[in-house]
Fold this protein.
Amino acid sequence: MREAEQLVKFAKKLKAEKLVCDGVNKGSISLRKSDGTILMSPSKLSYDELDIQKINMVDIDGNFISQPAPVSRDMYFHLEIYQKRQDVHAIIHTHSVYATALSLAGKKIPFILYGMKFHCRGEVDIAPFELPNTPECNEGIICHLKKHNAVLLENHGLVCVGETMQDCYETTEFVEHLSKSYLHALQIGSVKEIIEEERGYGNL
Ligand SMILES: [Zn+2]
């Protein structure tokens, strides 16, 4: 599958699975191609209407190679992540319901489920609130993604990264389900963190 088609496929999957809405809650999705250029979802357009003709393409420094659709300002933090994390080839930003609920409550997700080791590379931190798409906001995102694959943005939403688009999508979905479970558990009682010594070193 061509890389642009892959981006469109996962954008539509995010919408179908209700991980994103239309309008300003649409978030953003991007993919680093094998030649190093970046494919980026546009602003304004619903993912339902997205096709490969409506994807913007930039180089790693943000110079446009093709710009057929309105530019998402999220592009700048996506580019910074790609610059700092050579292993990352896909980024998804959502305002999905349960992850955003935690972000509104200002709660990070401690290491409470073994699968976090593989999907998130540990706990899911929360970056303090900053106005979206400002250098301060972008710095908070980058800072927390140096070691991990997911970060909550206080009073905002979620950013996930992955070595592939499939990995990135699975982390986004995993964190949303985890957030839902965590919120339910918090209503019943306290939640035990899995401490470092209990985490093990094996692979799934
Ligand atoms: Zn956002």
